[in-house]
Amino acid sequence: MKFRFDKKMIGIGVVAVLWLSLSIGAWVKPATEYSEAERRTLATFPAFDKDFPKKFEDYALDQFPFRDAFRTVKSVSEYYAFGRLDNNGIYLSKGYASKLLYPMSERDVNNACFKMTQINKSYLKDCNVYVSVVPDKSYFLAKESGRLSIDYREMVEKVQKGTPFAKYIDIFPALSLEDYYKTDTHWKCENLEEVSALLRKGMNAPASIATYEVKQVEKPFYGVYYGQSALPLPAETISYITNDTLQNATMYNAQTQKTTSIYTPEAASKDGYNFFLGGSVPLVTVNNPKGEEGRELILFRDSFGSSLAPWLIEGYSKVTLADVRYIASNVLGNYIDFHGQDVLFLYSTLVLNENLATFK
Amino acid sequence: MLFSSIEFLYYFLPAVMILYFLVPKALKNAVLLVASLIFYAWGEPMYVFLMIGVILVGYLFGLGMQTRFKKLCLVGSIVCLLLILGYFKYVDFFIESFNAVTGLSVGLLRVALPIGISFYTFQVLSYEIDVYRGNVKVQKNIIDFATFVALFPQLIAGPIVRYADIEAQLKTREHTMQRFREGLGRFIVGLAKKALIANNLAAFVSAFRASTNPSVLFYWLYALAFTLQLYFDFSGYSDMAIGLGKIFGFDFPENFDYPYLSKSATEFWRRWHKTLGGWFRDYVYIPLGGNRVKKWRWVFNTFVVWLLTGLWHGAAWNFVLWGLLFFVLLMIEKLWLKRYLDKSKVLSRVYLLFFVVMSFVLFNANSMAEAGKDFACLFGFGDLPFINEETIYYLRSNAVLFLAGIVGSVPLVKNLVVRMRSTGWGEKVFAVAEPVVLLGFLLLVTAYLVDGSFNPFLYFRF
Predict the structure, then answer these.
(1) Which pLDDT does position A37 carry in this prediction?
(2) So where are chain A's domains?
(3) How far apart are CA B285 and CA B302, in angstroms?
(4) Chain B: residue nearest A229 by CA?
(5) Is it the case that residue A345 has pLDDT exceeding 90?
(6) Contact B181/A9, CB-based, under 8 Å?
(7) Nearest CA in chain A to B2
(8) CB A85 to CB B396 under 8 A?
(9) How far is B17 from chain A (nearest CA, A)?
């Protein structure tokens, strides 16, 4: 190339050098195995096979230098330069990061009802069956902030129609935006006293916890939307309730076949919310030696059930939590003895609307 | 491989550029050829052999034209190339149409469309015809010829570069810092058009198609969004191709000239996909006699050109109708309307934009039934509300994008830059602002790509 120094070339030279620097960075940067922000394993350099180009594309994206910083640049650009109301379906309003839950997927809701009906027919003949739906926090945020949201009431009606064998318990009056984490999809354990009271009342269950103490997990909590929004949101704190009953309760995890306490800091290294009952696990049983002998609860649930469970243990001698996204419903009989317990189906609108394939 | 991908921008392209500028002049075409084959094989590992086959067909028939079988070689090359194109692009369309007409049910062959086949077969066709006509010399060097066909900057989405355009540059070309600067700038601007505007408009179009609750206004916004998306996608790709060409020492022809400013369909096709229009003019329309024939024959010639233009864009009836729509518009304009359009500055543009937007609704339909539904909904026959909450949301969320698209599709920024640079201080400001803007674009595009944004390429299917 003919080279003659020209001041005009300095600027474009800087662009070219930075481009080349990023390229060299991409070539030589050691691979990172896990993204804390996105809570997922990152692609590593693929083997040379017929899928190499596609896998290399994933690798190049996942391992790009300053990946998290670039994701933040994109988010900021989307919100503040392009004026987008959401970025990858996540939006910020009133300091809360939330998912754009829209439109309602009737197919998914109907499938969830069908699965609940199948479980009822197979196992719950002698049980007292209840159902409730947890509203997503977007329902409290969307209208005021001009975002789209499914109609919670409409979904509840569909669930009620789809599960005529169960008594519906309305927990909506006990919830408001403040009961949810700002950076996460879930509700806050320490705010669920009123919700648990409505559920207990609906199930004619033993009285609620009389005395308890709220404690905090020391580790700062960054919820799932923190990573998805890629914005510098402040950390939060996970709080939990405790008393003699909860301290004496033990939890058996059928997957790991280990017995631990109901709070599991060891499971919360990647997702702080896994502090509650080991997080996303197929089947756990909480034994409460102080509970009423023979009074048992079976909770079919998603992850919202984890932080609610501590409020439901009091009074029951045994609480079984089953997540049929991780265990096939047709083998439940091998693990649970169904014999006239209270049974509560508790699912969030988020899971009911988007998890057709995950209900087994 | 997509230009707007991390693997191209930060792995393939820098590596190729370093190698290209390090090797001696005699090896530069070989480097470009190997790089181009890797580039193509990355997404189409099997079809790279088809492209090599097309190269060999073009090369051997070209050599054959030096013998006394010149005409036979021309006919042979055209037949071979059209058969290849016909089989890989149109065979299932013809079977489907045959079945529809006869009521038979001949099984489809389900042939996957090789990326860019329409572009590289047309380039080889133009070479054969130009050699036959004596407009260019036969290329005896297989590396140089293969480099012309497979040259990755323009391989899969044009512009359609004719052999005559770069015949001299295949042998000797200039690499200067000035060309590098211009090329890099052009490439980054094209990249930004594609990754920041076209991809976001594509996401809007995708959201519209996924909507279960559309409205009349949503249909109109979709039509506008797709019209803008197509322009930014295709012209962005052409900018990238031209920019890369400059870096590697080639001057590719321009492909777009702000087509949405046109005042007639005639003018539109002088500004939109100029290399395709030029190809059909020089290799179909004029050989058929052009307009120096009787009126009925001229109408027929024009009809053939627009039928083929429609078919070139896709093997489906909506593309055929799309081409024929422009045939009708051009006929009406040439026979009557043009004289009125020329007198008007506003109405003529409204007329052109209306028909262009409608044509792209037809163009983007997945079937004739969908096209019919789209038109019905656009004009209020779809039993839809005029506006609803979902439409308002998407309008608010994409207002800046639409504005950027509209401003970017007219030469407002270009004219401002030209005017600014005509002054002394403006030139100094530009010298600083240009690299800052380009760097900003590059980093922003990288951010969008790293985040795994929606990234389709429309003109690949042609």
Answers:
(1) 82
(2) 8-93, 105-358
(3) 7
(4) B451
(5) yes
(6) yes
(7) A57
(8) yes
(9) 10
